[in-house]
Write a sequence for this structure.
């Protein structure tokens, strides 16, 4: 099976060693039930499509699929640190809950992706809905691309949309790396059209800068098509 020397799509840097290696050990050995296991997860892209049945994929199967993805190599962990992402942010969210990261090769299809041995490297994280249920896997890379595997999540960080938070506002990050740096607070928009519905009632949105604010206003502006009932009957 093909391997990837730069699975997170980040610039390679020299491994620093020391305490940073403990982070990789923690990700590698943490299991879903919170216990430690010595088994090392492996990439199995050739079985993804076999798991997509007529009824789709549920949360348990998404969690199993996610666990099979490769953990970041030490060089990629160091590269994330160089971007200002603290090691703790790679394994915990802002609530202190376990939330690690994975890497894989993907092919981009708009705001969707497919696992592929011929694809490009990307970082993979879990995507949750407003109720905190696992509904998708999300990929993003250093080129600014972001997308979901199943197309179920309109935003990354959906669990933060309606959950109690310290401020009334909701931060909208430009990239998945910005979101990761902030310990997964706020959201990143994946599908602008569908995100309008998800973000409609979540209070003021906090943008990174004025340019980003203008982009968000344009992206989330919704002007529904309106027709007159009388003219519709006449056309019929």
């Amino acid at each position: 099976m093909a391997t990837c020397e730069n699975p997170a799509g980040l610039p390679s840097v020299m491994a620093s060693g020391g305490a940073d290696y403990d982070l990789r050990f923690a990700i590698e050995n943490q299991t879903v039930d919170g216990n430690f296991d010595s088994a090392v997860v492996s990439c199995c892209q050739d079985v993804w499509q076999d798991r997509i049945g007529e009824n789709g994929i549920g949360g348990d199967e998404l969690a199993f699929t996610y666990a099979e993805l490769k953990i970041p190599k030490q060089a990629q962990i160091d590269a994330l640190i160089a971007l200002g992402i603290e090691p703790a942010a790679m394994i915990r969210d802002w609530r202190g809950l376990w939330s690690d990261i994975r890497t894989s090769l993907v092919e981009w299809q708009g705001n969707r992706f497919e696992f592929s041995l011929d694809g490009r490297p990307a970082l993979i994280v879990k995507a949750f809905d407003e109720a905190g249920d696992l509904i998708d896997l999300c990929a993003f890379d250093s080129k600014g691309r972001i997308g979901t595997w199943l197309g179920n999540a309109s935003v990354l960080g959906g669990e933060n949309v309606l959950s109690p938070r310290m401020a009334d506002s909701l931060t909208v990050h430009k990239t998945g790396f910005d979101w990761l740096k902030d310990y997964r607070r706020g959201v990143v928009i994946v599908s602008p059209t569908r995100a309008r519905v998800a973000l409609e009632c979540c209070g003021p949105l906090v943008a990174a800068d004025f340019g980003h604010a203008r982009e968000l206003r344009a992206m989330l502006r919704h002007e529904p098509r309106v027709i007159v009932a009388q003219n519709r009957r006449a056309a019929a």
Notes: The beta strands are 102-109, 112-115, 120-128, 134-140, 146-148, 155-156, 170-173, 187-189, 205-206. The chain has a mean pLDDT of 78. The helical segments are 20-29, 59-68, 74-82, 176-181, 192-199, 210-220, 229-235.
